[in-house]
């Protein structure tokens, strides 16, 4: 193991964004809850069954936006027409609901701003100082704006996010394709790359892609689930891995 807490032969680090680099996983979760609860109340009346944290972790966290809508609704036996990406936020389609959530997410970000995890920024600096390559691998179409807002865009050699994945036709997490694309673009074989993820879907992607090391970042007390989904090690902050100057 190196002083970064990684196997000696790791050459690249692939980081998820929301919940790993920035404190935005909770912002996404809150925007989803607002959106789904309003939808379910409209549909089922006041006796509706609310969207829970467990629903978020299991069906939505880490997935591309439209996949999150489909997967959660399917868990409740609900299917909506697909619609299209340009659907207005009040249309009852997969994309309409996704757009409704995005409006709520952006409103929250406008009001509260974006905060990074300082431990991750320090770890990233240490990774780069030791000559390892870095990528951001996020399902979010808002990834670039979020990184820019904390001045962290230049910390990554490669970005595979929701926009790039759509352009290239890559399936999102839990499939490994976005992480594999990042490793490929960095010129590193998957067994020589480490994945850093807070979402269960991200763990599944790390395992499916046969990456050299998968670090689960536990921000919400789900260490056991992260291990069950394939983490090699679980930390609550990347500073625990090492990388001190
Ligand atoms: O809606 P966006 O910004 O494209 O993000 C898609 C997904 O991105 C992931 O990073 C989040 O964990 C999910 O909650 C979110 O739904």
Automatic annotation (TrEMBL):
Q: Which family does it belong to?
A: Belongs to the HAD-like hydrolase superfamily. CbbY/CbbZ/Gph/YieH family.
Query: Keyword Iron, does the record have it?
Result: no
Supply the alphabetized keyword list: Carbohydrate metabolism, Isomerase, Magnesium, Metal-binding, Phosphoprotein
Q: Under the GO molecular function aspect, what terms does this record hold?
A: beta-phosphoglucomutase activity; metal ion binding
Q: Tell me which species this is from.
A: Streptomyces toyocaensis
Keyword Isomerase attached = yes
Q: Which InterPro entries match?
A: B-phosphoglucomutase_hydrolase, Beta-PGM-like, HAD-like_sf, HAD-SF_hydro_IA, HAD_sf, PGP-like_dom2
Q: Which SUPFAM superfamilies match?
A: HAD-like
Pfam families (alphabetical)? Hydrolase
Q: Which cofactor does it need?
A: Mg(2+)
Reactions catalysed according to its record: beta-D-glucose 1-phosphate = beta-D-glucose 6-phosphate
Q: What is its EC number?
A: 5.4.2.6
Name of the protein this chain belongs to: Beta-phosphoglucomutase
